[in-house]
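Co-fold these.
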Amino acid sequence: MENTADMLPENTSSVPTASNSVAPPEAAASPFAPRTDLSHLRRYAEAIRGELGKVIVGQHDLAELLLTALFADGHVLLEGVPGVAKTLTAKLLARTLSVPFSRLQFTPDLMPSDVLGTSVFRPQKGEFEFRPGPIFASVVLIDEINRAPAKTQSALFEVMEERQVTQDGTRYPVPAPFVVLATQNPIEQEGTYRLPEAQLDRFLFKLSVGYPTVEEEVAILRGHHTGFGGAPLEAVQAVVSAEDLRQLREQVRCQHVEPKLLEYIARLVGQTRAHKGLYLGASPRASLALLNGAKALAALRGRDFVTPEDIQYLAPVVLRHRIQLTPEHEMEGNTPDDVVKQILQQIEVPR
Amino acid sequence: MTRSRLLSTFVPASVAAVIGLLLAAPAGAAPGPQLPRPPLLPPADTTVARSAARFVPLPADTAAPVRLRRPAAGRLAALARRPEFRYVEPEIRSSSDSAWTRFWRELLRWVMELFSGPTYERKGRYVVYALFAAAFGYVVLRLLRLDVTGLFGRRNRAVPLPYETLSEDIHRIDFTEELARAEQAGNYRLAVRLGYLLTLRHLTERHLIRWQPDKTNHDYLRELAGSPWAPGFQELTRQFEYVWYGERPLSATQYPALREARQEFIRHLSGRLSAVS
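Predicted complex below.
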C-alpha cells in the first residue's frame, strides 16, 4: 500500500477549467451545434490521453474506455494476462488526477479491516478511535483483486456502491471522487477466489487488456532499449483536479438521451434475462451503467446526445461480467461476449 | 606394549574385554563359533505312488436307500403363516390415505413389479431398451445440435429469436405520402427521419448497403467507405442524428435546406447509377 497523494504535482494550470461550459450563442443558433460546450471535456480527455501515451504504447480503446468510466463515475475491473500493463495503466491514470491515491495488493490473508480501517482504543482519551484504511482515497488501485477471499472482497460492497464505510454504527464517507480500479488475472486459478456476483455488478466496466500488436511491441522494445523505461511514472503529471472532474461529470450527467434509446437499453438488458444460454441475466444496475457509460462516451466523441452506436459499443464491457452462461452453453465454447453480440443482433436499432 | 595392556590401563576390565574382542575379530586371530547347518531332507517318499497303483473301487452301497421325507401339508402351511417365513412385508394400508397417496403407491408397486421377476422378462426389459434408445437419441441430437421440438408443436423460445420491431419496415412505407403529411403538419423532425429512411431504402435497393435492423448508421457508413456516396451520406447521417437522437427543434426555415440536401443525394445516386448501367 502506498499513498502518493503528496507526490502528485499540482500542474493543472495549463488546462482550462471546466466551468462556464455552455455553448456560445452563435453555435446554439445552428441545429447541428452542441447545446453544451464539450470542448473543455474533450481537452481534458486529450490531456489525460497524452499523459498516458507518454508511457503506454497503443491500447487506445482501453484509454478511451477508462476515460469513459472516469467521466461516468464508475469503477473499472481490468482483466488480462500478466505483463500487459494493467497495473501500470491504472497507476498512470491515477497520476493524471491530482487526488489522493492508494494501492492495495490483495492477498489470501488480507482482512476486511486491512481495507476499511479499524477502531483502536486510545488509553489517553479512554475511548475508541476509528483509523481509516487505505480505501479512504479518491483513486484506489486494487491489484489482483481475486486473490483475497470472499470475506475481504465483500468489504468493498458498501463503499463501492454507497461511497461510505460503516464502522461501529458510524458512517464515514469516502472522499469524492471515488474510483476503484481493480486488476485480475483470468488464467491463474490456483489460490484465487472468484469475485461474488454482487461485487462484479458494482463495476461499471470489465475491460480485457489484450496483447499489443507487433508494431506496438517493437515500439515498447525501442523505448526500453533507448533508456526511456528508466523512470516512466515520473514523466506523467496530474492534469485534472477533483473539482474539474466533478464539473465534467455533471456535464456528462446532463447529456441528452432520446426516449427510444432508453427503451433500447432496457430491451438489450432485458433480453439477457430471457436468453436460453444464460443462467444469470443482467440487473437494472447494468441498464444504468449502460446509460451512464453511453452519455460519457457520447461526450468524449463530441456529441451532447447519445446514439445507438454508443450503446452498442459499450454493451459488451458493461454486460460481460454481469451475465453467467449455462454450463452447456459454456461447454459449447461460447463466451459472454458471444451472447452479448447475439443479443445485439436480435434487437432492432431505434431509428 | 600390546593392545590388551593399553586397554587395561585406561578402562575397566569388563569393557576392555568387549573392546578387545571387537578389535581382535577383524584380524582373524581366533575363528568365531560356527553357525548350525540346516538339517538334511530325507529321501523322496515313493510309498504314495506305489499305493495308488494298488487302488480298487468299492461296490455301491445298496443296503440303506435314500428316502425322501415330506412334511405334512398342514404343518407346512402353519409354518408358512408364521411371520419369520414371510419375506414380503404386508402392505400397511391406512384408511386415511388420500387418493393422491394411493395413486403414488400403486404406481410405485407397478414399477417395482415391472422391473422384477417374470414381469421384467415379459415387459420390463423392453422399457429399459426404450429408455436406452431415447437417451442415445438425445445425445445424438445434442451433438448434432438439432432441434426437433417443432415436431411436437412446441416452439423453442430461444432459437428463432425474432427481431423486435420498434419502427416500420422501410420497404413498406409510402414515403411520398408520409413525408407530405409530416411536412404539412409542421413535424419537421419526423420528416427528417422519414427522409433518412428513404435514403436508406434507395441505398439498399441499389445494393450499396445491406439493410439489417440491428445495424447502426455508422455500420452503413462503413459499408459505403471509399465510395463516391460516402461524404453525402455522412452529412445526411449527421443531420438525422442531431435532429432525431439529439431532438433538435427544427424550424420551417431550417428544414428546406435539409430536404434539398436529401433530394440532391438521391438524385445524384439515381443519376450516377443509371449512367453506369
